[in-house]
Amino acid sequence: MSKLSVLSLFIFAATTLAVPQPRAPAAAPSGFDITGVTLSGSGCGSFVSFVSPTTKDASVIFDALFASAGPGVSSSENHKNCVVSFAVTIPSGYNFGLKGLETGAFHQLDSGVSASQTATYSFTSTTATSPPVVVNGPVGPTSATVGHSFTFGSVRSPCGGTAVLKVGLDLLITGASGDGFIAKDSLDLNQGDHYDWVTC
């Protein structure tokens, strides 16, 4: 083998080892618990939260999380958001992020009016944002289940201990040519579909 080939292999190996490799997903561990749910934001309204008997899954039902637009509607009603904070206990030796979540939505949009739905999550100051889900009018009264996805490994919880998982829901109505309305009626998190675990 030539000196050039040996040098090339050495450089390749060195650069490969220098790049941190993502950890492989792990099976859901025992010891994870959701211990509390609180809400904050301009559009949350009243709510009811449910934590499963296993304390692994949670649902939040919203009474008045909606954005609207149209003649006579204040522009402050075009954009609403709500942050749902889940207090969690994380088993030692593991951390997790979200690979996705599901929300229930209702929308009614005239021609020329669009509704955008975005979800975020964070544990500290770093936030993961899902691609926006956009619905363009005209759309009659429609209920839908909306899936929001996140890049694997983009934001992780602390390794073990307690933390607060903050899930943000953002609603935006654009277009002044007609009436528009979009509401979120539910948020669901479950261990089987939405968490991604790795060892740490």
The tally of strands reads: 13
The tally of helices reads 2
Compute the CA-based radius of gyration: 21 Å
Biggest beta-sheet profile? 6 strands, antiparallel
Pfam families: DUF4360
InterPro entries: DUF4360
Protein name: Ubiquitin 3 binding protein But2 C-terminal domain-containing protein
Keywords: Signal
Structure in words:
With 200 residues, this protein is mainly beta. It is built from two helices and 13 strands. Helix content is 10%, strand content 54%.
Topology:
Blueprint lengths: L2 H16 L14 E8 L6 E5 L6 E12 L9 E12 L3 E5 L1 E10 L4 E9 L4 E3 L3 E4 L2 E11 L11 E14 L5 E10 L1 H4 E5 L1
Keywords: Signal
Organism: Coprinellus micaceus (Glistening ink-cap mushroom)
Protein name: Ubiquitin 3 binding protein But2 C-terminal domain-containing protein
Summarize the structure.
Keywords: Signal. This protein is mainly β and 200 residues long.
Features:
single chain, 200 residues, mainly beta, Jelly Rolls, six-stranded antiparallel β-sheet, five-stranded antiparallel β-sheet, 2 helices, elongated
